[in-house]
Amino acid sequence: MSTNRDDFGIAIRSALLQRGAGQKFSLFVFICLSILIFFLDSFPSRAMDISRSVINDSIYRVSMMSSSPFKFINLLKNKTVIHFNVRKENIELKNELEILRNKDFNLEFLASENKRLKEKLVSSTEKKYNYVTAKVIIDKNSPFLKSVILNRGTKSGSKKGMPVLDGNYLVGRIVETNYLSSRVLLLNDLNSRIPVTFGDIPVQAIMTGDGRDKPRLEYLPENFEPLEKETVFTSGKDGIFSPGIPVGKTLFEKESIKVKLFSDPNQLSYLNIILTDLSKKEIF
Q: How many domains does the chain divide into?
């Protein structure tokens, strides 16, 4: 048994020694081959030039192919970063553009409101009445009840019964007041009754609202035949409205006489609350 073990150990050591000798021989061969290449390279010849060119091209191609995956990964990484940066910048630019658009719309709206307010201030109402300008903040619109809420109340001198004009045209009267707001009953409201006059020979009538855009004329003289497009004014018979405030034009519609109002009750923005009739120096 011991003899077999010794033979086995000797065989292994012999194999290792042979492997070590082979490695040393291979290293020696590579060294000699390198020296030979350097030696031959020092003597220019066409064969060496061709060989060198082939070897260099092969090395360059292999290097290029081996580095291609890394270049592709770096390129993909850069493209991805650029894509997300561009997307982020695009979102920021869209937000900035939306902000600028909103600013433009706000400026346009304010310019439009300013223009309308200037038109109210320079109207001829200023010459005849002492008034305060108010803005419509709520439009209470139902099938028959028509009224608006203004941002002026008793603090600004508003009182019940005061006429309310759109420019020079009557649109209603105040029926409810608060400290900072007032409610205006419009001419086309179901509860509106205004004494009016029209025609060359003044005709007295009552303009009654019916919930529609065109109030009707009632209590006309018997056998009276009015003409169309005659201007209707307040008569002042009720002691509330000053006489002579323009209201609208007469209009025939389905065998009834109606008034096409000068001011559209559905398009009110800034109104004038008449505090004093300067011709009378009285407060309504």
A: 1
The answer to whether residue 125 scores a pLDDT higher than 90 is no
Domain contains 12: no
| Token pair for 109 | 């709206």
Is 64:72 a contact under the CB 8 Å cutoff? no
Host domain of residue 161: 128-283
Residue 216 lies in a domain: yes
- Asked whether the beta carbons of 136 and 271 are under 8 A apart, the reply is yes
Q: What is the pLDDT of residue 108?
A: 63
pLDDT of residue 67: 66
Report yes or no on 78 lying in a domain.
Answer: no
Distance from C-alpha of 220 to C-alpha of 17, rounded to nearest angstrom: 139
List of residues 6+ apart from 140 with CB closer than 8 A: 146, 147, 148, 149, 183
Overall average pLDDT of the 80-104 stretch: 79
Is pLDDT of 70 > 50? yes
How many Å apart are CA 13 and CA 226, to the nearest integer?
Answer: 139
Give kind and range of the element (H or E) at residue 56. helix 46-121
Assigned domain for 170 exists = yes
The angle, 0 to 180 degrees and rounded to 10, between the axes of the packed helices 2-41 and 46-121 is 80
**CA 270 vs CA 56, 244, 278: distances in Å:** 89, 22, 21
Task: Please report the pLDDT score of residue 6 as a whole number.
Answer: 55
Q: Quick one: pLDDT at residue 255? A: 78
**CATH number of 264's domain:** 2.40.10.340
Flag whether pLDDT at 249 surpasses 90.
yes
